Amino acid sequence: MTVEKLATGFQFTEGPIWHPSGFLLFSDIPANKIYRLYPGKEAEVYLDRSGFTGADGSLLSDMIGSNGLAIDSNKNLVLCQHGNHAVSRIDSNGKMHVLTDRFDGRPYNSPNDLVISSDGSIYFTDPPYGLKEQVIHPSIFQTGAGVYRYKDDEVKLLTTDLRYPNGICFSPREEYIYVGSNHPDEPIIWRYTLSKSGEILHQSELIEHNADGIKTNDRGDLFLATDKGILIVSAEGKKLDLISLPETPSNLAWGAAAYKELYVTARSSIYKISQLQ
After folding, report:
1. CATH classification of 2-274, choosing from 3.40.50.300, 3.30.470.30, 3.30.499.10, 2.120.10.30?
2. Does residue 176 contact residue 203 with C-beta atoms inside 8 Å?
3. CA distance 15 to 270
4. What pLDDT digit, counting tens, does each position of 217-232 carry?
C-alpha cells in the first residue's frame, strides 16, 4: 500500500468523487469552489461559487461552499450546497438545476453529504455546519438535523436520530445505509435497514466512533475518515485496520481501479492510497 500527496494549498477540502470521464472532483468549502484533478496534472477550478451564489451570508458560517458530490446515471454532477441550502445538479451543458432546497416550507440547514441509489434516489444529510455558529436556527431553517431521501421531486425525512448527521453511504447491495456523526458528543455510526422502496425498517449501532466521510468496499467493509486516519471496520463493526495520513482526512472516494485505490480529501491536501487489498 502506498500513500501519495497529489495536490495541496487548499483551505478545507471535502466531497471527493471520481468522474467516469477520468478525473477527480472535490470541494473546497470555505473557498466556495469545486476543483478538478486529472492524473498527473495540477488541480484546476471546475466550478466557482459552488455552494453559495447569494449576496447576504450573515446567517452562514465560513463553510459556505459545496460539500458532498456524487455522479448520477447520466454522468451529471449532483452536489450538496451549504450556503444555498440545496441539493443541486449540473447538467451536461453546465447549467445548475436546484433539485430541492426546502422541506415543509423551510430551507434546509446545510446539506452535507449524499449518496445516489441504483434507482436514482438521492439520500442526503442535513446538519447545521453551514449555518452561523454551526447550530440549528429553528425560526428560519429546519427545526432539527435530518437524513432525507429525494426522488421524482418528492422529499421524505427518514430520520432525526443525529444532531450532526454527516457521512452517508450504502452497503454493496443497498440493503443498508450507514450514517455517521463527527461531533464529539455523538460518536456513532448508525446502520439502517432499508425496504425496497427506501424506507427505514430497522436501525442498529454499528460502532461507537466518530467519522466524517464514510465509504464501503465490495466486501461490505467500511472506510471511515477519522481524526486518526482512515479506519477500516467490518460490516459487523470490528476494527480491521488504520491507515495513517499526514493530515486529518475529511472524506474519501474510490478511484478508477475499483476498490484498489482511494482518493482522500484531508484539510489542505488531496491524497491517493493505492494497492489496497
Report:
1. 2.120.10.30
2. no
3. 11
4. 999 999 999 999 999 9
